[in-house]
Specification:
Shape: elongated
Distance between the termini: 103 Å
Number of helices: 12
CATH topology of one domain: Serine Threonine Protein Phosphatase 5, Tetratricopeptide repeat
Oligomer: single chain
CATH architecture of one domain: Alpha Horseshoe
Organism: Flavihumibacter solisilvae
CATH superfamily of one domain: Tetratricopeptide repeat domain
InterPro entries: BamD, BamD-like, TPR-like_helical_dom_sf
Helix content: over 70%
Radius of gyration: 31 Å
Protein name: Membrane protein
Strand content: under 5%
Keywords: Cell outer membrane, Membrane, Signal
């Protein structure tokens, strides 16, 4: 029974391949176009793509060319060939700038970059590119129904970039590169000023500078504890109602006590 089933499947596949080969060999381009559209409608994007590609140079300037270009671009997209799809979506808007589909193609071009946005640990060039293109789309089409989704995608991409920067800053702290960590957390705050975690990032800045001061040579400690106090004061001014204020006050007290101890030791030494 199993052998019989496999034979039937093989026969059907062979028939399908044979039929497609005949379509490809046909010199009746109207027929070939109808078959390409049928393959596309049946989601057989590989076969449709091959036929559209053959017809592409033959239909330029033809009133059917726009639909062929449109379907051809989506063939690449549905097969997850996002780099090629991006080029085709972009090309469509350049060839048919006044088409009623141009807005859709602009959006889909940006969306292909979003589909190529990798895991947080990897290079985020495509994520940044998504933000730029989606924002351009919103600015160019202020009344588009796609703007809600475009805004949501921008927010997701920014959250990913923020998380990547956070992990980088945390890594510096964990490997005891405290000065680099302080700078990284400061940059994180500056790059994402509207983040809900801004007060957390500022506390990390304070912690990093405090640990940096602790590990410094004696001649530099007082100066670097002063930097901790400066950051603590900035925290209080910027986040007066933060739940992290108690932690900041503790670092401020520790820094002040350490500065006093250093100055007292200097007085004893000079005496």
């Amino acid at each position: 029974m199993r052998v019989f089933f496999l034979v039937i499947v093989a026969a059907l596949l062979g028939t399908g391949c044979s039929k497609f080969a005949k379509v490809q060999k046909s010199t009746d381009y109207d027929y070939k176009l109808r078959m390409a559209d049928q393959y596309f409608a049946k989601k057989k994007y590989n076969q449709a793509q091959q036929l559209y590609e053959e017809l592409f140079p033959l239909l330029k300037g033809n009133d059917k060319f726009e639909n062929v270009y449109y379907n051809f671009a989506y063939c690449a997209y549905y097969q997850r060939d996002y780099m090629n799809a991006e080029n085709l979506f972009k090309g469509f808007t350049e060839v048919f700038p006044t088409s009623k589909r141009a807005e859709e193609m602009e959006y889909m071009r940006a969306y292909t970059y979003y589909k190529q946005s990798p895991k947080v640990e990897l290079d985020q060039t495509n994520t940044s590119r998504t933000i730029g293109l989606m924002q351009t789309f919103i600015n160019t089409h202020p009344g588009s129904e796609r703007n809600k989704e475009a805004t949501e995608i921008i927010d997701k991409c920014r959250a990913k970039l923020e998380l990547k920067e956070l992990r980088s800053a945390e890594l510096y702290f964990n490997i005891r590169q405290y000065h680099a960590a302080a700078i990284a957390f400061t940059n994180l705050m500056n790059n994402f000023p509207d983040s809900e975690k801004s007060d957390e990032y500022k506390l990390h800045v304070i912690r990093s500078y405090f640990e940096y001061a602790n590990l410094s040579v004696d001649e530099k400690k007082a100066e670097r504890y002063e930097k901790v106090l400066e950051e603590c004061n900035e925290f209080t001014d910027r986040f007066p109602d933060s739940k992290l204020k108690r932690d900041v006050d503790r670092y401020s007290s520790l820094a002040q006590n350490n500065i006093k101890a250093i100055k007292n030791e200097q007085v004893k030494t000079s005496a």
